[in-house]
Design a protein that fits this description.
By secondary structure, the chain is of the alpha+beta class. It has 3 helices and 4 strands; from the N terminus they run E-H-E-H-E-E-H. The protein has a 4-stranded mixed sheet. Strand 1, helix 1 (about 10-30) and strand 2 form a beta-alpha-beta unit.
Length: about 80
């Protein structure tokens, strides 16, 4: 099971990234757990300075933007 982590404080871009990530995982048929990391200290522990960010199994794949569903599929697949 993939652990998909959305790093962000809950801003509109963070919410959009969460929606698109769920859509991508469902389209790929991946078993996944979506976790929202909202505490600043937890986010910076990943080395992320600009949100939103997406981490897969603890590794940051993208930060500072909301990628397309197709891009997210490549990142999580």
């Amino acid at each position: 099971m993939k652990k998909l982590q959305i790093l962000g404080t809950g801003c509109p871009k963070c919410k959009k990234l969460a929606e698109l990530t769920e859509q991508a995982a469902q389209e790929l048929g991946l078993p996944y757990e979506l976790v929202k990391v909202t505490r600043i200290n937890d986010i910076t522990a990943f080395g992320v300075m600009i949100t939103p960010a997406l981490a897969v199994d603890g590794a940051v794949k993208v930060s500072g933007k909301v990628p397309s569903v197709e891009e997210i599929k490549r990142l999580i697949g």
